[in-house]
Amino acid sequence: MTLLLKAESITKRYGAVVALSDGGLELEQGEIHALLGANGCGKSTLCKIIAGTVAKNSGTLSILGRAVEIGGPREAEALGVALFYQELSLVPQLSVADNIFLGREQRSGAGFLDARALRRDTEQLIARFAEVAGAGFSADALVSDLSPDQRQIVEILKVLARKPRIIIFDEATAALDRNQVALFFAILRELKAEGVSSIFITHRMDEVFEITDRITVMRNGATVARFVTAETDRQAVVHAMVGDVTALAERPAARPRSDKPARLVLESVGNKRVQQVSLSLRPGEIVGLGGLQGQGQSSLLQGLFGAAPFTSGTIRLDGEQVRISRPSHAIGKGIAYVSGDRGRDAAFHGRSIFENIAAASFSKERPAMVWPGRLRERFTKAAATLSTKYAGLSAPIGSLSGGNQQKIFIARWLATQPSVLLLDDPTKGIDLGAKADFFALARRLADEGAAILFYSSEDAELLSLCDRILVFNSGAVAGELEGEALTAYNLTNAAYGRAA
Amino acid sequence: MNRLRSTLTDPLVLATLSILVLLAAGEALSPGFARGDQIVRLLVVSAILGLVAAGQSLVVIGGREGIDLSVGASISLGAVLAGNVMAGQDGSIFLAVLVAGGATFLIGLINGLGVTMLRIPPLVMTLGMTGVVQGALIVISRGIPSGNAAPALMAFVNRPLVFGLPGILILWALVGVLMWVLLRRTRLGYAIYAIGSNERAAELTGLPVRAIRTLLYGLSGLFAGLTGVIVIGYTGNSFVSVGDQYVLPSVIAVVIGGISLAGGQGNYFGAMLGAIALTLLTSVLTTLQLEFWGRQLIFGAVLLMLMLLYGRAGRLRA
Amino acid sequence: QDYKIGLSNGWVGSEWRTQMIEEAQAAAAAWAERGVNIELVIQSSDVDVQGQIGAVRNMINEGVNAIIINPNSPTAFDPIFAQAAAAGILVVATDAEVSSPDAIYVGIDQTDYGRKGCAWLAETLGGQGNVVTINGVSGHPANEMRVAGCRESLAAAPGITVLNETNANWDQAQGQQTMQNLLATYPEIDGVYVQDGMAAGAWRAIEAAGKTADIAATGEVRKDFLDLWSAGNYTSGASVNPPGVMASALNVAVLKLQGKEFKEGIFGGVYGNAIFLDIPFINNDTLADAVAAADGKPGHWSVTDELSVEDAEAFFQ
Amino acid sequence: MTPARTNPAMAALRNRVWLVTLSALIALFVINWILQPNLVTPNVLKSNLTVFLPVVLVAIGQSYVILGGDIDLSVGSIVALVNVVTVSVIAALGGGVPAIFAGIGAGILTGVACGLVNGLLIAGLRFQAIVTTFATGIIFGGLALRILPTAGLPVPAEYWRTYGGAVLGLPVVLWVLILALVIIAIIARRPFIKHLSAVGGLRQAAFQSGLPVARIRILAYVLAGLFAAFASLCLTGETASGDPLMGRLLALSSISAVVLGGAALAGGSGSAFGAVLGALVLGMIGNVIFFARFPFEYQTLIQGLITLLALAGGVLVARR
Ligand SMILES: Nc1ncnc2c1ncn2[C@@H]1O[C@H](COP(=O)(O)OP(=O)(O)OP(=O)(O)O)[C@@H](O)[C@H]1O
Ligand SMILES: Nc1ncnc2c1ncn2[C@@H]1O[C@H](COP(=O)(O)OP(=O)(O)OP(=O)(O)O)[C@@H](O)[C@H]1O
Ligand SMILES: O[C@@H]1[C@@H](O)[C@H](O)OC[C@H]1O
Ligand SMILES: [Mg+2]
Ligand SMILES: [Mg+2]
Question: Any stretches that span the bilayer, and where are they (chain D) (predicted)?
């Protein structure tokens, strides 16, 4: 095997924050290499340094044994490096085709844009994803009109279109569903066969063992372990990542169905994307929303929260019919909503962690005046529940890694002590340790009487946390699993059951 | 070292430093420039700019490219209305404030509705509103006397009230405190930063984003109208374009005070210092014996230098 | 004979301009008594030079008999006035002279306006002392002419030192701020030349500094200021640029349209196409009359003066 | 299957907001025609085009800057500076035909240089665009006053006669418009326009995609300077003289024109062609007000109202 890329002793500081203290990575020709580690350990930073978008402070990079200085994304591209950005690098106002070929447009002889070639090449590229990409995915569609998974697909295609020899996929599967992931893996294998090397970052351990050849693990800004995938196991890898094992809680013993009166009852609610959904949720219950991605699960949660209000049906809370046409109504009634799309739905960029936590509590409690000193302790506690890694409440939210930010946004809602918790794929980008904490916390909240609706794009999460699961298809409930029936097999079956 | 660097690049510190440098320059160029009574007079002029900048700050912090270019027209409207209502009578000052503030608050609300409900970009909405208000002013000021400031109002602006300071300075300090309380000690203040920083996230935490933003434009109009009342107290009478000269300076004061035009950042103290720095600069330039074009060149260059110090966007390559 | 006359005003920033148009409208209406019906086509809005050229073009396309214009530039209208003249349209500029040989100017001599103000100042100071000036918009022709006239008068008094020349853009508040800064910088100011409405601002600053008794400064002629002037016992003097200049220009234009010929040798000015109107001057001696004349008028009303039809006839053969 | 996300007709419209501007323009034209029956005669049309052309040209340049997510408040001062440079160079070289060409060349270089200064400050030194171009506008205006303290310096008759005349049977002003349209058509078909949209749409993404972000933004400012220079040369042809205070309203009217033409002020969407239509709409509004013979004291108000309504209407359609 040839050593294609080598990163050694890479360091990177952001002011006082040390993002990387000793980043290292060795990538062989034609392999798929997993880069793993807890939130904030420096994976994205290392990748961006390799792709030229972040400047390192020290350390060396070499390609095929020759030391290289990568001064920007263009230089990286010239060296054959392409990065799938965790936060994506797409321009919302441009079409799918324009985005895929941005900066490397096909030109006619006179240097004009060759629109026909652009369309042809794009259609060739997107054809592979036609089956799994869902409605509205075409060469001319504007990226701003696409769903998160479709955007990830565009980012994948954009990377592929650059025909690189080194591709870094930074959480490329985070928003993809099973089918989409399968197709993506097929492509990874083809690339491998062509001799292209891939670095693959994910927080899903199954994916690591399914597709990668070798594994590099980082912890606290340093590379701490390397494995050959076939010669190791989950336990060992997780151990390297977190120091001591805090594995995902195993599926708990089925709990007796609570006989308390329902906290939340939906009767045939619907809007543009949800049809006639009815369900009932008791205090202490965690109900999962399953099925393929984009079947209306998020829309149901957003409808219930008043962000995309229902246009039909009724909502009852503790027996009383309520009207929820905007989030403030929901918050006032003790409902909380945690979104997985933190950059868009949650982060107050540039503001302090304090303010980021405070927002929901203020809406709930409606104080006229604010005395930050008196709230500090309470918010510190809220942030601590998920062992968030942060410098202090007055540090800006942007100084945290993606995963740690997400913990803050969960803390934001915990601070309101909600009685109904709506979780919309809340663990996106959260590391294993935090995920375990989070699940334990969700359980505890349920045990204390909260009612929880939980949507996750990962079946394993649903299976390990939920008392029962409603399986969605095309905006409607296609089935319900409970008790003994809660198995991965049944869940997959139900999801595909009535799908076209 | 890092702390030192971040202190030195703090907009508030920079604005304060620029003020000291300008004062020193003024004193060096013409001894007596930095005399107490002269500083008080400069502060009076700064206060007028500072009051408009209060509204401008709110609108800019509130985000979504927030900017209010109609403040000039609203100042003129406030001045003309106040002048007409007061007609030189002390007894009518309160009513004048009410009428001027009420009318401009309404205009601001209309701006806000255009920005929030019709989603017109603020720059365009408030620019368009400027034309409408100016037009309306020409219509209403015709035939009606432009009116005079009441003597008590003029004394409030121009004459010492307490500790040798004119009432307007006390008022300005009060506005500074109120703005701080609003932004840092009320839920509304936190909400303003939140909507300025991420509107969708603000909605999802239950904030009435449109109502708040509309209110911000209303407040900007209100501040402009009140500034109009002060302006007529400063100049004695008013004319239809009296507010024009404050429009871009109010934006600049806000920017050199460290309030990012991207929204969700900064505070009113910065804008106050910005207003003082800008007024000082203008006045230092007046005392230079230079041709007009020379003053313009220096003015532009100093603005650019202030931008160089800290009004810069971050590097794309971190 | 009936006429269609275009009035173009390219700046609406002050009541002076409103009064200018209202007086022109009144003058046009008054012609009805003489059996002449005048239809006015008025453009009055904030425009830049090409915007005002656009208005003139529209007037030409509309087929007016004459165009009376308060121009935004002295030179920029040369080509368009040539086209108007070619179409048989009479063009009369007012308030600011124009270089076009195809137009005439009826208004005051802005150079003389400045000359008179500064001559008064020099004389009042007894030819001795320190002077500062506060001028209007730099680069604006009327301003440049006034500045030139003022400099001429001051140069004639060798005992006078000009400490600083500044601009406050014909804006009263800026005039006040500028005066403040000047007072702070130069404790030894004896006299101030300040144009137009800015004078009210400057005087306010002088008053705030408690120097009304020590400083002589030019003034302005709106009623508001006349009242202050007499109440405060200022030492002041003001050249008057009457808003009636456009009405005067209109009267001249109608007579010309009626086929009368101008007398020989009445044209002067920078471009040799100007008929100058008298510049009334108000000083402490004549102030009482001016205050009386302004009695009952609104505060923004400016002392005015306009050429009657009879006076205008004096320019014709 | 699930329904398509947006109605295709509306989606098409969203990408061609200028269609709406065009409809508004046609409507205004018809109203103007009713009020002014001789509108559709060659002379009157040419006369109107002559008036609108400077705003059209400045708006084209402004549209590139805005597409890139920036703004240029200095274009009016650039117009003034180019004008005084052009007339001064012509006068200094004696006013012959070679002097005229030298003057035009100097003017264009001046415009480009001003654009370059803006671009270097804003994209190179990463200054805030609004305040920076406000400051450079003051500087350019100051320089114009330095070069020509007050209006004057007539240009030779060859210059303005040619500008006001015809070539190959068509008015020169029409040729200028055609040339401008050809230039924007060429630019619209270059990769540059996509890159500029990306830079204006999401700067970080454009950078991560390997685009030379600073160079692209600088080029947009240079284009703005260049088109401001073209506008200034036209104005010089129209006014036949120098005026250091020329163009003071052009910055704001060009921005209005760009927005009327369907561009997002935040950047990333819009077109130069839309800006052309937007500028024509602004001009036609002025005409309609003139010919509708409103009382003079209402003219500013009505102009303000119609402009605001047009801006609001354009934005509304663009957003749906
Ligand atoms: N622009 C920045 N400014 C300041 N600190 C930063 C910045 N970007 C990253 N960091 C810090 O650098 C560290 C590494 O972040 P990075 O994004 O590389 O983590 P990661 O391993 O990709 O985490 P995740 O799994 O959550 O995506 C974190 O502590 C983060 O807070
Ligand atoms: N704006 C829209 N208008 C109409 N239909 C839509 C729209 N957005 C999505 N859909 C379709 O409605 C169905 C429900 O999708 P929806 O987005 O509500 O699911 P979701 O769980 O929220 O998925 P996501 O993960 O994309 O947020 C999908 O088939 C989707 O293609
Ligand atoms: O006298 C001034 C006049 O010349 C100008 O044109 O308009 C405003 C007046 O103050
Ligand atoms: Mg990451
Ligand atoms: Mg979803």
Answer: 17-35, 47-67, 74-93, 99-122, 129-148, 168-188, 218-239, 245-265, 272-292, 298-318
Q: To 10 degrees, what angle do helices B36-61 and B167-185 make? A: 30
Crossing angle of helices B36-61/B268-287, nearest 10°?
130
Q: Report whether pLDDT(A165) > 80.
A: yes
Tokens coding A320: 């009383």
Pocket of ligand 2 (CB under 6 A): A 134-135, 147-148, 272-273, 293-299, 475; D 2-3, 5
**Pocket test residue of A85, A356, A401 for ligand 1, highest count of atoms within 8 A of CB:** A401
* Domains of chain B, each with CATH number or no CATH: 10-311 (1.10.3470)
Q: Which fold has domain D14-319?
A: ABC transporter involved in vitamin B12 uptake, BtuC (1.10.3470)
D69: contact with A, CB 8 A cutoff: no
Q: What confidence tens digit (pLDDT) does each residue in A31-46 have? A: 999 999 877 789 999 9
User: Does the beta carbon of C197 lie inside 6 Å of ligand 3?
Assistant: yes
Using an 8 Å Cβ cutoff, are C309 and C34 in contact? yes
Distance CA C188, CA C59 (A): 53
Chains A and B touch (3+ CB pairs under 8 A): yes
- What's the confidence (pLDDT) of residue A342? 86
Chain A contacts to D (CB-CB under 8 A):
51, 53, 72-74, 76-77, 83, 85, 88-94, 98, 102-103, 105, 107, 111-113, 134-136, 145, 158, 474-475, 500
The answer for residues whose C-beta is within 8 angstroms of residue A99's C-beta and 6 or more apart is A90, A91, A143, A154, A158
Domains, chain A, ranges and CATH?
Answer: 3-242 (3.40.50.300), 264-495 (3.40.50.300)
Distance CA B188, CA B194 (A): 10
Classify residue A369 by its DSSP letter. Answer: B
ipTM over 0.90: no
Q: What is the pTM of this model?
A: 0.87
Are the beta carbons of C84 and C92 closer than 8 angstroms?
no
How would you label A226-245 residue by residue, b for 16+ Cβ within 10 Å and e otherwise? ebebeebeeeebbbbbbeee
**Is residue D195 over pLDDT 50?**
yes
Q: Which candidate from B32, B231, B235 shows the least CB-CB separation from C187?
A: B32
- Of D144, A54, D138, nearest in space to B307 by CA: D138
Question: Does D38 contact C42 at a Cβ distance shorter than 8 Å?
Answer: no
